[in-house]
Amino acid sequence: MSASKPVFKKCVRCGYSFRGLPADHACPECGLRFDEECELYRAANPRQILVVWIAIFSGGWATVRHLHHVTSFAAASAWQKVGALAALAWFPFVTAGLWMVIKQHRRGYTVSVMCDGLIVRLPGYKPDLIPWPTIQEASVKDLPEGKPQIAFVVLKDKQRPMSIGGVCNVFPKRADVERFVEQVNSRVRAASGSC
Q1: Residue 162 contacts by C-beta under 8 Å, 6 or more apart in sequence?
Q2: Which of 105, 125, 161, 184 could form a disulfide with 152 if both were Cys (CB 3.0 to 4.6 A apart)?
Q3: Domain ranges, ordered by start, for the chain
Q4: Distance in angstroms (rounded) separating the CA atoms of residues 6 and 9
Q5: pLDDT at 76 over 80
């Protein structure tokens, strides 16, 4: 075992703290293996936050403008009643939106290249380990520099590839997505050679 510092401060699958553990080890809690070539890609600036804040501010403006119609609902016109109902609906919407943002960003949007497979912790994906033998290949979507980059990961048992990046901005630069694709393809080749 190597005596260097671990690449990760905690396990990306179960959250176990790695304080004092070497770089090459298995998580004592869940058994996920780590080495110095494992890498974590973290979202730079997810657009979901922007959408939630736009909804909060626009809903807040509508609420302030129409909330007084709630108290005089019976005497209000049809459009004023719609505005009053929208103002009331804004509160649970904001609560749900904030809860979603807090929940997702406490865990973080991440993609992890591990010894035994890929862990994708993004909206729409279960954060389970995707073993290397189940992955066929990874490729880069051709996008101009400056846009959030996208990697395609093709699973052997699925017809459509997984689209990783994009909205969650896990790969802000072309070099990041190219490094990720090379790491995935290298691990896939190594896994198929050991079978």
Answers
A1: 120, 125, 152, 153, 154, 155
A2: 161
A3: 1-36, 47-106, 110-194
A4: 7
A5: no
